[in-house]
Amino acid sequence: MIGRGIGTAELAEHKAQRKSVRPAFLGHVIKELVPKMWLKALEFSDFMATESKATDGTIEFHRLVSLVTLDIIGVAAFGEDFKSLYGSQNELAATFRRMLDPTWDFIKYFVACMLLPSWISAMLPMEGNKTLTACKSKLLSLSHQLVTDKKEVVKKGGNYSTTVLSVLLKNGEFSDDDIRDQMLTFLFAGHETTSTSTTFAMYLLATHPEIQEKLRLEVQGALSQCHPHELTDQIFESMPFLAAVVSETLRLWPVARDSVIRGVTIPKGTRVNMSILTANRSQSIWGADAAEFRPERWLGEGRETHGGTNNRLASSITFLFGPRSCIGQSFARAEMKCLIAAMVGKFKIEMLHSDQQVVVAGAVSLIPSPPCPDMLCLSNTLYTLSSRSSL
């Protein structure tokens, strides 16, 4: 689906790719990308304000944040403004969204893929297979053309600001096809996961109004130090509670899908998927309040990386740990900070039905899912937004 990028490479190939891709996600690069993310987050909050006026304050949050996270990846990673939030039909973005659209044809085909060997499922004359194959071919072609175009700009010394793609191009260690595969890997890995994590953050803040108000005071205080459109990474570094809210959200609701194995003897060499959700809520690691949303656990000297647990390196494994850890985690955290700050700084966020409990589902990642179509829930989330001070 996404070629031979870092997400699918193994052993020596993965090690080599990670070393080559790493420069695109170093701290100084992410700091340069933060202003791009923030401007998109501001656009999102303005869009939400307009939408809320037309709907008496109720907003279908998860669908809309999914569009803006795609736009953020567009400007910060590809150097392209997809304008998905405004209904633009950018071919690459539209093709990508079509591949993720959970139609019955796709669902039936994915079920077949899970039950049958890949060489058989690839030949099935199913509509889902035909559509997916066509989308894959188009996505690979469009991505390759984008890489080629940006490469020409870099070669000619054109004015091309820092993006993930520009860093990879200047690195010079990848072929055009290699860069295409890396960018598609990042697009697939970083889109739905970040939008879903941000949705979970809104749910947690809506159900913990005292934490939301504490965060709002911090955000508005930081925003008062500069012009709203000139926010930098340094301003975000002055908001430790925002960072704590992001870390606590990611701990409680890691979006990577889990597999649970119980009572089964596992032979040597067997691949095992560990339960990130269970580990992140383990009382033996996090204490008696492990299941509670308490951002304060991440505050204090040294706690920002391990939440006050005894394991200072691998306490929270939302992004995994070690050589297979998520290389884009700093990008994802920065993106979440921008979106959460833009929303909380401008709106009071409440659940339409205060007693609604979160329900999750998903195949590739954990996503909010409705127990029934007419109930408020996070896959079709309706928040009541009351406009606060303008950013």
TrEMBL record:
Presence of keyword Metal-binding: yes
Cross-referenced Gene3D superfamilies: Cytochrome P450
UniProt keyword list: Heme, Iron, Metal-binding, Monooxygenase, Oxidoreductase
Signal peptide (UniProt feature, chain positions): none
Cofactor(s) needed: heme
UniProt binding sites for heme: C326
GO terms of molecular function: heme binding; iron ion binding; monooxygenase activity; oxidoreductase activity, acting on paired donors, with incorporation or reduction of molecular oxygen
Keyword Oxidoreductase: yes
Pfam family, one: p450
PANTHER family according to UniProt: CYTOCHROME P450, CYTOCHROME P450 12A4, MITOCHONDRIAL-RELATED
Family listed: Belongs to the cytochrome P450 family.
Record protein name field: Cytochrome P450 monooxygenase, putative
